[in-house]
Each structure stands twice: as structure tokens, then as C-alpha cells.
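REQUEST FORM: STRUCTURE PREDICTION
Request ID: SP-0412
Submitted by: Lab K.M.
Chain count: 1
Length (residues): 147
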Amino acid sequence: MRAIWAMLFCLAQLRQLTAVSTPKWHTDWATLSALPLKQLFREDEWLSQARMVHLQWADLMLMPFFPNSDQSYSLKSIELKAVPGIAVLLNDSRHFVISRKHPDGEAAFAALNKGLQQMKRQGTVNRLYLQAGFLIDKTQVHILNPP
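STATUS: Completed
RESULT:
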């Protein structure tokens, strides 16, 4: 019962909040558009988005989870902090693009796949995604948009 109440509470809060992003980041824009937000502002420059949130012109923006202990981000006079225990899932993936027409395209493709397989076996891929804030422990956060 507690998890259901927390989810309803968070969704009710979202209806009172504004967010900022850009449609140039298709996945971020689609994710925020699907949430029951009061308003979604368009700002194409990332630093301007951060300033809007810092100045409280918008309530939130999407950012990766940072590996520092307090989940904060700081740049010049901009100070932002993650909402503790809350996460949004992005339905997206990461890709490498290699030209089939390039003379070394096949060799590059084979080398890339070989390296990625080795990194997966060693756990390097997951570790790096965790460090970059793209993967989280889903048992430690409330996800606002579960799959």
C-alpha cells in the first residue's frame, strides 16, 4: 500500500510542476511530454535549461545520476540537486555508427564488437554506465514512469 500511495503522491505533485527540455532530444522530450506536468518549456541549450531550473523559472529538468554522494551538479553559479529517491526511465539505447562504404568499415565493425564483448564479460560496460549515471539500482528509487 505504501508504494501505491507514494506513486499517487508523486503523480499529484507532477501536475503542479513545470519542466524544461528540447524536442531535439527526442527521448527526453517524449518522456517529459508523457508525464502529467503543468507545463513543458522548450529551451534548446542545455546550459540555459540548467539556468532556468536554478533560477526557478522551471521546476525540473532531466539529468543523469551523478556518482557523487549528494547527487548534486555545480557549474559556475548554477547549483542543481537530484530529487532523492525519484527517477525517470528513458526508453532509448546507445549506438555506434560505422559506415559500410568506408574501406575499413568491416574491420572497424569487427573490432568494435570484439571489444564490446570483452568489456561486457569483464563488467566494464555496466560499471561505466553506472558511473555515467545512465544505469541505476531500481530498487533504491521510485520510478515515476514504470515500463
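NOTES: The chain has a mean pLDDT of 86.
Reviewed by: T.R.
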